Amino acid sequence: VAFAVIAGMPPQYGLYAGMVPAMIAALFGSSRHLVSGPTTAASIVLFSALSVHALPGSPEYVKLALTLTFMVGMFELVLGLARMGALVNFISHSVVVGFTAGAALLIAAKQLSNFFGITLPGGGHLHDILYHLVLQIDEINIPVTIVAVVTLLSGMAVRRWYPKVPYMIVAMVIGSVLAAIFNAGWLGDDIVIATVGALPSSLPPLSAPDFSLETIRQLGTSALAVTLFALTEAVSIGRALAARGGYRLDGNQEFIGQGLSNLGGSFFSGYVSTGSFNRSGLNFQAGARTPVAAFLAGLLLMIIVVLVAPLAAFLPRASMAGVLFLVAWGLIDFVEIKHILHSSRRELSVLLVTFFGAVFFELEMAIFAGVILSLVLYLDRTSKPKILTMTPDTRLPERPFSHEHGLDECPQLKFISVQGSMFFGSVNYVQDTFERLRVYSPQQKHLAILAEGVNFVDLQGSEALAEETKKRRAEGGDLYLIDVKPGLWDSMDKFGCFEKTGVRNVFQSKRAAIRGIYNKLDHEKCKSCHKRIYQECGAMTAAEAQKA
What we know:
Blueprint: H1 2-7, H2 12-16, H3 20-28, E1 36-37, H4 40-50, H5 59-81, H6 93-110, H7 112-116, H8 126-135, H9 142-161, H10 167-183, H11 213-245, H12 251-266, E2 274-275, H13 277-285, H14 292-308, H15 317-331, H16 334-343, H17 345-360, H18 363-382, E3 386-392, E4 401-402, E5 413-419, H19 427-440, E6 446-450, H20 459-474, E7 478-482, H21 486-494, H22 497-501, E8 506-507, H23 510-518, H24 523-527, H25 535-547
Parallel strand pairs: 5-6, 6-7, 7-8
Antiparallel strand pairs: 1-2, 3-4, 3-5
Helix pairs in contact: 3-12, 3-14, 4-11, 5-11, 5-12, 6-15, 6-17, 6-18, 9-10, 9-15, 10-15, 11-12, 11-13, 11-18, 16-17, 17-18, 19-20
């Protein structure tokens, strides 16, 4: 019921969304423990997407919600059948954390009207809601606010001192009792606390989405945003539970299960459903072993609704607002936000963009902005592979290679380690590095690349290596590759890289490379060098002394 309130739907639709969709997802999904249904995040995204098109709670709004649910299900099903389960990997954890924190503020803000018993714009952004709250500060309904505050404090107290007790239910009961006392006139005849009202005690009725092209065009962008976030939520929870349960989750099959769930739900009065962390975690802790448990959860909900739906007539909206304040607070992952704040500026920027986008703009645009920024930062990072100067540490007996600054280098041979892929996006950066090496170290005409950190080379990367080889040979030097992985070898061979660099310039170990390259160095320069970087340098000195 609370989720439906967040989504702007009539209360009973929150129950409907936990019935048929949960049963279908259990039958066709991959997870043994995932329980699908309405969630806080999906509900707030739905509200944000639809409240600009229709009045929340109206028949037109419900029709749009069912249509959006159908479109989300279709997107999910197509992605699953296309084997694109890895798509959710592009929504970083920082996007999820920032989005949920922003959504939490919106959930609380949109319940301020029920919390204080005043009328506020339902579809406005955070600053609009706060502005109207300040204008109506003198109209706050004290009895309504008392019920909301008592509900909120009761939930906080139960969660603090009795963590095993379902604190939201206890808080709702306490708030309902207090509201009943007010409505009974014991504290005044003119006090009225609005309630949710009785819910239909029936099975979910059949429904039909609106398939008009105008509606589909209108909801296309929102449906895609909801799809991405719903799938991320479901697959992330499913993977976490699969890891704890000792099995692997098939992301593509879970996409299919979620898609069929929303497709079916749209015809049984269910709005967008996805994996629920709370219900799935409880399902796991209760000892569930197969998806039958989640299927039975949806089936039993149908039976329960028939029996207890009339009791919703006693649920005060103020208590519902207090409970949703608790929900909003629980959505904010303060530990993870603190971790991101102190660990990575890149991830922090993604979090902030998503958070402020959710608070001040549309939620679906916040998701897109966070995803796009994540991809831009990822591409920026991959376009600049780490390139380190490597040299043997002569202070140690085995002379292991090290990138420690200040170690002596061979005057003729430069060793570098490339850690990252050499593809069209990083070629310019790599070529600029090659150019700087030639300018600042003109005597080091030979360049050896430690390729153990290179996972991929495309056509442009191969051409860049071939071009560098050509330039160094023209200057009397050469280019060498060391520790080339089998898969990398195949791709470089396919692109014709070895035809230009030469297979003989590829070595499978540093020791073999040093022995092979040493013979190509200018030994006259070696005679005047006193650094003795390589063991071969010492062998040459001994041979010259014996000859003398």
